[in-house]
Design brief:
Elements lengths: L14 H10 L17 H15 L20 H16 L2 E9 L1 H9 L10 H15 L5 E4 L4 E4 L5 E7 L2 E3 L2 E2 L7 H16 L13 E4 L19 E5 L3 E7 L2 E15 L5 H16 L1 H7 L4
Parallel strand pairs: 4-7, 7-8
Antiparallel strand pairs: 1-10, 2-3, 4-5, 4-6, 8-10, 9-10
Length: about 300
């Protein structure tokens, strides 16, 4: 008659650890202790429980890190389309980034004065969009696409302005078609309509395609700056950071002003830094001194 094996006793750091393992159904003999002398401590049991839960859910161990896989998210639908477009942009476009800090105090004051009892003031994004469209008329190299098959840079007459919008389905870019034909009020209304439709999942394929330049207001995410990825096959994207009170030198004195950052990412095949800097400076000057620019645009 055989002799029953003697149960193996595993050294643990406390009775609580043994109870935790028993309640979770973890066999302590399979747990590698990381405490002094191989003592099994609480974190060892917690890791064993996590691994057990992952296995029970049909997950596996990540080959690179050795960690349990929490979840696998299929790269399909909108997410796959976004990944494909961004990857193509990085692979094909030799991009460069330039940026500038801008005093938006006067723009905010002017915007507040544009409100009336029968309509709200246009959004800051709509005002910046108006300046962007005007800037593209002066610097058309940034409102273009590169025809690699034909070996040409195609400058476009008119602007279809993409507005990057974060949604539950991912980042999408609804397009204000014919933005060059709109004044600020019409731009504001169309931006609001499109971004609302995009976030509610009602935007059509036409709404989300055909852009010639993209404006990205990442300031709504609470960040100051970003080196964005160009929305292929466009050749540039302008980013707007959050507007924050900061110390600023005005007429030799340090005062508190509302400061934001504009960043321009552009395709170096279509222009050099002089053109990119000229466009960025035009938009920055319009933000800092909006009244003369709006008067030039027959807005007021």
């Amino acid at each position: 008659m055989g002799v029953a094996p003697t149960p193996t006793t595993v050294a643990v750091s406390s009775p609580l650890v043994r109870t935790m393992a028993r309640d979770a159904g973890v066999d302590l003999t399979t747990v590698r202790g990381t405490g002094p002398g191989g003592l099994v401590v609480r974190r060892d049991v917690e890791q064993a429980i996590t691994a057990s839960d992952a296995g029970a859910a049909g997950a596996a161990t990540d080959e690179r890190t050795g960690l349990a896989v929490r979840e696998r998210v299929p790269l399909t639908g909108v997410r796959r389309a976004i990944a494909t477009a961004l990857s193509r942009s990085r692979q094909e476009i030799p991009e460069a980034t330039t940026w500038v800090d801008v005093d938006a105090t006067t723009l905010l004051e002017l915007r507040a004065g544009l409100a009336s009892p029968d309509r709200p003031a246009p959004s800051v994004l709509a005002l910046v969009a108006r300046f962007v469209v005007a800037g593209l008329e002066r610097y058309p190299a940034l409102n273009a696409r590169v025809d690699t098959d034909g070996g040409e840079i195609v400058h476009l007459a008119g602007v279809n302005l993409g507005i990057a919008a974060q949604t539950d389905r991912g980042l999408v870019v609804p397009v204000v078609r014919g933005a060059h034909q709109m004044r600020t009020k019409a731009l504001d209304e169309e931006i609001r309509r499109l971004t609302t439709a995009a976030r509610e999942g009602r935007a059509s394929a036409t709404d989300l395609t055909g852009g010639s330049f993209t404006l990205n207001n990442y300031g709504v995410l609470g960040v100051d700056g970003s080196a964005a990825i160009i929305n292929h096959p466009e050749v540039a994207i302008l980013g707007l950071g959050r507007i924050m009170p900061r110390p600023w030198v005005v007429d030799g004195a340090v005062v508190v002003r509302s400061i934001t950052q504009l960043s321009l990412v552009f395709d170096h095949r279509v222009c050099d830094g002089g053109t990119a800097g000229g466009f960025l400076r035009f938009v920055a000057d319009a933000v800092e001194r909006p009244l003369p620019h709006l008067l030039d645009l027959a807005e007021l």
